[in-house]
């Protein structure tokens, strides 16, 4: 991941600041940076969202395609994640530089979503054992300024909220031949219930304390971080430790509690924002990438 | 301003795709009106004073038709009276989607400057573009777009101009909505009826609205057609079968559905009775359901013509007729798979030629139209000019066939002229045989080389200069499209050099341009009696490509080196420049050869060619090439009136076969070359060998004369034909050859990559193509292109190397050739009728060619005319007849008719049915009381007067 070099003195400065609940950019330990969300930014996807968190910028597009359900769960659709670390984000990603990170990120996303409470996968089924919707969630990193996981998870939630799956129905003839028919009204579509989709909260352990939404500089000062995915009810769907250092059980407990609290608080304003944007309808002036 | 258009569609593989297109809105789309001051249009289309006098719209106005009006009432819109019409882009796009022919016609109307039709691109105009709203269907959206555009126009055109915009729609809802927003809107028919200038236009209104059913009893006559989706799934599951409907020519209650199978497994399903036919019209693609086996019937041999004299209420009578079909006792094995039509997949309606049968009620405006093609049902049309249309050939289009109507409904399109008139009849037979015969469009003509044309330096450098050779052409008299010329000279080594030079049409017609497309669609030049319908514009066919004498022309040459035994030592192909020294007719060439005193270059040339041709021909016959015969007639046409004044069978001279021999040789050489070079995409011609059962009639025929004929191979057939001779009956052999011709299959073009059997049966060659007549056949142009690529003289293009495109082209060419042949025959038949009309009654000698159940078919060698002598007569009791199918013979009142019997008949013209005039023959000799007719008084003048009436 994109890193910055930090001198010992700087490290000490950050460390002492966090100890006193004072961060370099003036935030408290449980505060996020400025977040911007915009949905429906890529017209040829079925749902898309762009999220900027500080200077971290991610774009998520969701494409719905008809596929075959997995044999183990014939009555469910599924999600596929792909994270593209473009060299636009940071020169380190040039060539195949971003591949490792991309795989790590997408694997994490699979784990976060592999919980039956997150998303009603049954609603993605068209005809059991034969056809289902596959949602391809493509994440594109546009700019890295720390805390990718949180930004991506918010963007995914927003993009899924925005996703409009064309309505299809199966018509069956007498001898069992099935045919998928598409509704001819483009406005006739199905929405995904995103209420229970978790957001990831990354907590960085700095000194004896931990902070949310660490900048690159803070990250460089931390030995390990804990990644917690929390739904709006505070349910934790996934916990992962990243980074080289170790965490003692007590701080893990503490960090989980913080994560749950912060995560719960994150969902409400996000949903409110998305609904507000939706209600503006087509009259909304799009900001896009140049705004 | 950028908008994006988004829609979701289903792909063929079953996936769902979201498609997003950019859509730009502009503010520089002009309204196209001369009165407008705002728009900066340099050449506005719509006139300042649009004048269409209508009793409803007394003010000047522009018309805006909606999609359905354009689709269904295109015949009306095409009328020169209708001008100043705004065609919206929305409408144009929808028309394009729904009907290609209608789209082409509206496009033509828009291009016609006199019509002042203006296309307004409302979909790209900033103020008229609308987006589809949630819950709105695509159609509703388009209707709204049309209304929005009409609204914009009515606001946009300055009030001072006093021009209003009138919207035409047949959709009730659309009309109501438009009225609510204050637009002027009328139904199409009420507007057309209000036009003062041309009341006849009403006739051309297509009958679409459903309120017009009052004339028919509300009783439903036909079962409902299934919706397309149900048909499709039914076909998939095998419940229904898809096929092409073919109506029976002789029985209007019967038809067959031809089902294309894999390879040769095509089958036919019989349909019997109006209910089972269920409104299918000849050539429609239909879905049929097979009936259970116990309901299967045999095809009836009854001739039933739909008289149309009975009204709709006399259906009982029809049911009787249907019963007549079914109560016939039949053998079990003659039962055919029988079915019923459940739905129509694709209508293949075209405009039909025919005549009007006037209604019995004098004031009625509804009349029945009888098409010339007997396979097409009668069509009910509405017209007020019935009196003027009586006795005229007219064109009618079908609009629809509701389930409670006995006949399809249609509307009048065009008057072709009075029946029996030569121009009219020629037009009719061209239309009926689908021969494209309209003058070439400007677009096509724009690809002609500019005149004066001369061979350029560049051409000279690329081509071999053969101007010094003594080349000459031999053709029928009066031929202006000379596409082949020959030369022959002795080489220093004692061998002979023979060259066939073919007009280089592919030099002028470049692949893919409009002229090429037009030629590909026409496929062939059609020769009618006294008229030629060219495949390529006349400048090419009769001038630049024609290898006339003493002018320099571009040619594609095939040059052989041969020894004295006509064995080919060396073949080469080259593009060349030639200068023909003489254009001869067959007779002239023959005279030169025969005249011992002539010793000029040309004559020597011809003698050399003639000598080689004889050897070639002998070799070909040795291999088993067939010499078949069909009676061909030629008319001597009066140069003033263009009426046929005499008719004679075509005579063949030695020079005919001389030219033919070298053409065959060239074709074979070229076929081999292009096949060697392009084994996958060579365009070849094959003639399949006929199945043995085809020869049955020939075997039976010859048995009666105590002769045998072998048909196992072409060679044996040729030999037996040569040996079959009867003392004192010189015409017998020709008769036999005519019969043999009838046993043959049709020769066809095909693409070498998609077929494995290349043999040409009739010519007894393993490979064959057409190379020698590029002016009159499109196949030859393709072969020229292939050969040019093969010798590196020209570049290739993708379609030439695509075997599927090639195969599609072959299908069209085969179809056009077949139709051209039919048209030619029909033209000869018509001229024969004209000839006999002027001659009155003639008595001639003839031979029996076929024997039928109730008739004999007689060939008159003098005229090459074939006719049927019926022994049944409506007014008289039929004579006692016994038909022996085995021999076959027909015994009438004790006299037995055998094949090849000599008879005398009297020939006259039967004009009782003006649409289907025919030659009538009656028996004179042998005299059979009550059957044969007495020798009529030789009184042709009086008869003529009577017939001319």
From TrEMBL, chain A:
High-level lineage? Eukaryota, Metazoa, Chordata, Craniata, Vertebrata
Sorted UniProt keywords: Acetylation, Cytoplasm, Exosome, Nucleus, RNA-binding, rRNA processing
- What is one term from the GO cellular component aspect held by the record? cytoplasmic exosome (RNase complex)
GO molecular function (one):
mRNA 3'-UTR AU-rich region binding
Instruction: Give the family from UniProt.
Output: Belongs to the RNase PH family.
Where does the record place it?
Answer: Cytoplasm; Nucleus, Nucleolus
Q: Does the keyword NADP apply?
A: no
Subunit details: Component of the RNA exosome core complex (Exo-9), composed of EXOSC1, EXOSC2, EXOSC3, EXOSC4, EXOSC5, EXOSC6, EXOSC7, EXOSC8 and EXOSC9; within the complex interacts with EXOSC2 and EXOSC4. The catalytically inactive RNA exosome core complex (Exo-9) associates with the catalytic subunit EXOSC10/RRP6. Exo-9 may associate with DIS3 to form the nucleolar exosome complex, or DIS3L to form the cytoplasmic exosome complex. Exo-9 is formed by a hexameric base ring consisting of the heterodimers EXOSC4-EXOSC9, EXOSC5-EXOSC8 and EXOSC6-EXOSC7, and a cap ring consisting of EXOSC1, EXOSC2 and EXOSC3.
User: Chief localization class?
Assistant: cytoplasm
Q: Which PANTHER family match?
A: EXOSOME COMPLEX COMPONENT RRP42 (PTHR11097:SF8), EXOSOME COMPLEX EXONUCLEASE RIBOSOMAL RNA PROCESSING PROTEIN (PTHR11097)
* UniProt domain Exoribonuclease phosphorolytic: residue ranges: 32-166, 196-261
UniProt keyword rRNA processing, yes or no = yes
Q: What is this protein called?
A: Exosome component 7
Q: Name one GO biological process term.
A: rRNA catabolic process
Automatic annotation (TrEMBL), chain B:
UniProt lists compositionally biased (Basic and acidic residues) regions at 322-332
The name under which this protein is listed is Exosome complex exonuclease RRP44
Question: Region annotation Disordered: residue ranges?
Answer: 305-332
Q: Where is this gene product found?
A: Cytoplasm; Nucleus, Nucleolus; Nucleus, Nucleoplasm
The RNB domain extends over 463-793
Which Gene Ontology molecular-function terms are recorded? 3'-5'-RNA exonuclease activity; endonuclease activity; RNA binding
The alphabetical list of record keywords is: Acetylation, Cytoplasm, Endonuclease, Exonuclease, Exosome, Hydrolase, Magnesium, Manganese, Nuclease, Nucleus, Phosphoprotein, RNA-binding, rRNA processing
Q: Which organism is it from?
A: Clupea harengus (Atlantic herring)
Question: Which cellular component appears as one GO term in the record?
Answer: nuclear exosome (RNase complex)
Give the protein family: Belongs to the RNR ribonuclease family.
Task: List required co-factors.
Answer: Mn(2+); Mg(2+)
* Stored CDD domains: PIN_Rrp44-like
Highest taxon listed in the record's lineage: Eukaryota
Q: Fill in the subunit field for this protein.
A: Component of the RNA exosome complex; within the complex interacts with EXOSC4, EXOSC7 and EXOSC9 of the exosome core complex (Exo-9). The catalytically inactive RNA exosome core complex (Exo-9) associates with the catalytic subunit EXOSC10/RRP6. Exo-9 may associate with DIS3 to form the nucleolar exosome complex, or DIS3L to form the cytoplasmic exosome complex. Exo-9 is formed by a hexameric base ring consisting of the heterodimers EXOSC4-EXOSC9, EXOSC5-EXOSC8 and EXOSC6-EXOSC7, and a cap ring consisting of EXOSC1, EXOSC2 and EXOSC3; DIS3 associates with the base ring of Exo-9.
What Gene3D superfamilies does its record include? 2.40.50.690, 2.40.50.700, 5'-nuclease, Nucleic acid-binding proteins
Query: GO biological process annotations for this chain's record?
Result: CUT catabolic process; nuclear mRNA surveillance of mRNA 3'-end processing; rRNA catabolic process; rRNA processing
């Amino acid at each position: 991941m994109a890193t910055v070099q930090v001198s010992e003195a700087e490290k000490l400065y950050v460390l002492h600041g966090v100890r006193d609940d004072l961060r370099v950019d003036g935030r408290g330990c449980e505060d996020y940076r400025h977040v911007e969300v915009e949905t429906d930014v890529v017209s040829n996807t079925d749902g898309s969202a762009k999220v900027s968190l500080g200077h971290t910028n991610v774009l998520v597009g969701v494409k719905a395609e008809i596929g075959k359900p997995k044999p183990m769960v014939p009555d469910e659709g599924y999600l596929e994640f792909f994270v593209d670390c473009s060299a636009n984000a940071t020169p380190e990603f040039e060539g195949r530089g971003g591949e490792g990170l991309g795989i790590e990120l997408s694997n994490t996303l699979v784990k976060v979503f592999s919980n039956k409470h997150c998303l009603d996968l049954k609603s993605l089924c068209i005809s059991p054992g034969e056809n289902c919707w596959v949602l391809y969630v493509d994440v594109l990193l546009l700019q890295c300024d720390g805390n990718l996981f949180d930004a991506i998870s918010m963007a995914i939630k927003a993009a899924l909220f925005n996703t409009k799956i064309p309505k299809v129905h199966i018509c069956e003839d007498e001898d069992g031949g099935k045919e998928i028919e598409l509704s001819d009204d483009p406005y006739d579509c199905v929405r995904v219930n995103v209420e229970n989709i978790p957001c990831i909260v990354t907590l960085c352990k700095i000194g004896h304390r931990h902070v949310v939404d660490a900048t690159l500089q803070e990250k460089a000062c931390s030995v390990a971080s804990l990644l917690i995915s929390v739904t709006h009810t505070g349910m934790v769907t996934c916990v992962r430790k990243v980074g080289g250092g170790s965490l003692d059980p007590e701080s893990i407990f503490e960090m989980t509690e913080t994560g749950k609290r912060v995560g719960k608080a994150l969902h409400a304003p996000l949903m409110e924002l998305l609904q507000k944007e939706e209600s503006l309808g087509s009259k909304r002036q799009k900001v896009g990438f140049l705004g | 301003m950028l908008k994006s258009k988004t829609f979701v569609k289903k792909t063929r593989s079953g996936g769902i795709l979201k498609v997003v297109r950019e859509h730009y809105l502009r503010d520089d789309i002009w309204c196209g009106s001369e009165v407008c001051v705002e728009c900066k249009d340099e050449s506005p289309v719509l006139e300042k004073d649009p004048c269409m006098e209508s009793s409803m719209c007394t003010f000047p106005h522009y018309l805006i038709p909606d999609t359905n009006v354009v689709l269904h009432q295109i015949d009306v819109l095409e009328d020169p009276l209708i001008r100043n019409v705004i065609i919206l882009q929305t409408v144009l796009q929808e028309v394009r989607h729904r009907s290609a022919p209608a789209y082409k016609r509206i496009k033509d109307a828009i291009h016609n400057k006199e019509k002042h039709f203006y296309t307004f691109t409302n979909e790209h105009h900033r103020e008229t573009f609308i987006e589809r709203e949630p819950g709105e269907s695509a159609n509703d959206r388009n209707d709204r777009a049309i209304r929005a555009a009409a609204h914009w126009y009515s606001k946009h055109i300055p009030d001072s101009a006093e021009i209003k915009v009138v919207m035409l729609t047949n959709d009730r809802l659309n009309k109501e909505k438009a009225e609510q927003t204050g637009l002027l809107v009328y139904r199409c028919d009420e507007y057309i009826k209000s036009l003062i200038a041309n009341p006849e236009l009403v006739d051309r209104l297509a009958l679409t609205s459903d309120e017009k059913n009052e004339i028919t009893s509300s009783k439903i006559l036909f079962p409902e057609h299934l919706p397309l989706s149900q048909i499709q799934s039914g076909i998939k599951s095998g419940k229904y079968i898809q096929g092409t409907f073919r109506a029976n020519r002789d029985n209007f209650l019967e038809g067959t559905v031809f089902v294309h199978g894999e390879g040769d497994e095509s089958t036919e399903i019989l349909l019997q009775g109006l209910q089972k036919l269920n409104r299918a019209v000849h050539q429609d693609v239909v879905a049929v359901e097979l009936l259970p086996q116990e309901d299967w019937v045999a095809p009836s041999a009854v001739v039933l013509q739909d008289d149309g004299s009975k009204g709709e209420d006399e259906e009982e009578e029809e049911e009787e007729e249907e019963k007549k079909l079914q109560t016939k006792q039949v053998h079990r094995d003659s039962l055919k798979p029988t079915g019923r039509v459940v739905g129509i997949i694709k209508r293949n309606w075209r405009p039909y030629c025919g005549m009007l049968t006037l209604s019995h009620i004098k004031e009625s405006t509804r009349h029945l139209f009888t098409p010339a093609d007997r396979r097409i049902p009668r069509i009910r049309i509405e017209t007020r000019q019935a009196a003027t249309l009586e006795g005229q050939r007219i064109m009618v289009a079908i609009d629809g066939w509701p389930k409670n109507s006995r006949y399809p409904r249609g509307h009048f399109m065009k008057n072709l002229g009075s029946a029996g008139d030569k121009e009219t009849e020629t037009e009719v037979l061209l239309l009926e045989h689908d021969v494209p015969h309209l003058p070439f469009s400007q677009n096509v003509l724009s690809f002609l080389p500019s005149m004066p044309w001369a061979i350029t330096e560049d051409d000279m450098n690329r081509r071999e200069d053969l101007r010094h050779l003594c080349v000459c052409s031999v053709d029928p008299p009066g031929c202006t499209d000379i596409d082949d010329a020959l030369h022959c000279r002795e080489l220093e080594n004692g061998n002979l050099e023979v060259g066939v030079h073919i007009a280089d049409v592919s030099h002028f017609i470049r692949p893919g341009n409009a002229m090429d497309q037009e030629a590909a669609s026409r496929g062939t030049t059609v020769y009618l009696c006294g008229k030629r319908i060219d495949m390529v514009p006349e400048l090419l066919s009769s001038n630049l490509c024609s290898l006339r004498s003493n002018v320099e022309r571009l040619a594609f040459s095939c040059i052989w080196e041969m020894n004295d035994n006509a064995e080919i030592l060396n073949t080469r192909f080259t593009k060349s420049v030639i200068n023909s020294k003489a254009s001869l007719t067959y007779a002239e060439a023959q005279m030169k050869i025969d005249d011992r005193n002539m010793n000029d270059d040309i004559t020597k040339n011809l003698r050399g060619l003639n000598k080689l041709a004889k050897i070639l021909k002998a070799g070909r016959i040795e291999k088993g090439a067939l010499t078949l015969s069909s009676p061909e007639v030629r008319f001597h046409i009066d140069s003033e009136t263009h009426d046929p004044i005499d008719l004679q069978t075509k005579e063949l001279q030695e020079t005919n076969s001389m030219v033919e021999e070298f053409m065959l040789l060239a074709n074979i050489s070229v076929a081999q070359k292009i096949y060697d070079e392009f084994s996958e995409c060579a365009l070849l011609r094959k003639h399949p060998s006929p199945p043995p059962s085809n020869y049955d009639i020939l075997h039976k025929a010859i048995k009666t004369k105590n002769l045998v004929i072998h048909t196992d191979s072409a060679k044996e057939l040729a030999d037996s034909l040569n040996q079959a001779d009867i003392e004192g009956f010189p015409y017998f052999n020709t008769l036999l050859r005519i019969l043999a011709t009838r046993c043959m299959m049709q020769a066809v073009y095909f693409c070498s990559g998609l077929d494995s059997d290349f043999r040409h049966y009739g010519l007894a060659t393993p490979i064959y193509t057409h190379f020698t007549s590029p002016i009159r056949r499109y196949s030859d142009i393709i072969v020229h292109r292939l050969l040019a690529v093969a010798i590196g003289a020209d570049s290739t293009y993708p379609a030439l190397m695509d075997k599927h495109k090639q195969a599609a082209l072959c299908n069209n060419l085969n179809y056009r050739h077949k139709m051209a042949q039919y048209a030619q025959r029909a033209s000869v038949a018509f001229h024969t009728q004209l000839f006999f009309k002027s001659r009155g009654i003639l008595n001639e000698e003839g031979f029996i060619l076929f024997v039928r159940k109730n008739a004999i078919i007689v060939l008159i060698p003098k005229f090459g005319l074939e006719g049927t002598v019926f022994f049944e007569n409506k007014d008289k009791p039929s004579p006692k007849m016994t038909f022996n199918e085995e021999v076959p013979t027909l015994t009438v009142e004790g006299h037995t008719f055998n094949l090849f019997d000599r008879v005398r008949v009297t020939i006259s013209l039967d004009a009782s049915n003006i649409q289907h005039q025919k030659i009538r023959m009656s028996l004179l000799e042998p005299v059979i009381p009550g059957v044969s007719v007495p020798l009529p008084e030789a009184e042709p003048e009086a008869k003529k007067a009577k017939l001319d009436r």
